Amino acid sequence: MKLKALEARVKSEKGFSKEEAKSALIRLLQDAHAGERAAAYAYYGHAKSLFVSDQKEKKEIFEIYEDEIHHRAGLYEMLKGLGAKPRFLREKLMQFIGAIIGFSCLFGGWFIPMYGAGKLESNNIEEYEVAARLALLSGNNHLIKDLLDFAEKEWDHELYFRNKSETHFLYRFFPKWTFPDKKENIRKNYEEFVS
Questions:
Q1: Which residues contact 114 (CB under 8 A, 6 or more apart)?
Q2: Model confidence pLDDT, tens digit, residues 108-157
Q3: What pTM was estimated for this model as a whole?
Q4: How many C-beta atoms lie closer than 10 Å to residue 131's C-beta?
Q5: DSSP structure string for 97-111
Q6: pLDDT under 50 in the chain at which residues?
Q7: pLDDT score for 29
Q8: Do 143 and 88 touch, CB atoms closer than 8 A?
Q9: CB of 86 within 8 A of CB of 30?
Q10: Own/partner pairs, 125-128, CB within 8 angstroms, 24+ separation
Q11: Phi then psi dihedrals of residue 99, to 5 deg
Q12: Got the DSSP string for 69-98?
């Protein structure tokens, strides 16, 4: 199920048994786990790029790379706790995609990796917000705090890459993704969902 459709279904809370919510949560965590691998590969290549010459910027991108590795480890533990594991084919596909993107970042300029990363991180915020709601609906409340923490960290990443992209003259010619709501609304929206 696509993220937007899943999000709409979760918000309505209609037709979700605990088992269905758990199954959807596992699938979403598996996708996120594989996606974090692709992101990590891409950010590693981006940080190593010849086009990222500012040492402070390199350090910042490496920090985001490390956040993605941390999220991946956390997601693996969540899956294990739910009696699941990563999907092999999805992992390999995302590894391949991440490696291609990471390699192309080495030679592909500065703007496109910054822009692409911002767009990607915007989707990741929603992914973790939906996962937190699925954790609640499936009775896995112990996962909620970490999932909301991950959403907030992805919010920081989106803002970083968007701010970087906006400094480039090409930004005005590219389509804009939907910018996320305020960071504090991640938890506020969750609390509203609970009530």
A1: 161, 164, 165, 168
A2: 789 999 998 998 899 899 999 999 999 999 999 999 999 999 999 999 99
A3: 0.91
A4: 29
A5: HHHHHHHHHHHS-SH
A6: none
A7: 97
A8: no
A9: yes
A10: 125/151, 125/154, 125/155, 125/158, 125/180, 125/186, 126/3, 126/7, 127/3, 127/28, 127/31, 127/32, 127/35, 128/32, 128/154
A11: -65, -40
A12: HHHHHHHHHHHHHTT----HHHHHHHHHHH
**Residue corresponding to tokens 């490696």:** 99
Quote the tokens at residue 170. 């090409």
The answer to whether the beta carbons of residues 64 and 46 sit under 8 Å apart is no
Residue 148, φ and ψ in degrees, nearest 5: -70, -35
Helix (H) or strand (E) holding 151: helix 144-166
- Tokens for 127, please give them: 């992914």
Helix, strand, coil share (%) of the chain residues, nearest 5: 80, 0, 20
Question: Which pair of structure tokens corresponds to residue 105?
Answer: 């970042």
Q: Which of 87, 85, 82, 86 is nearest to 21 (CA)?
A: 82
Q: Which two tokens stand for residue 48?
A: 């190593």
- Long-range contacts made by residues 190-194, C-beta under 8 angstroms, separation at least 24? 190/129, 190/132, 190/133, 190/144, 190/148, 193/11, 193/133, 193/136, 194/136
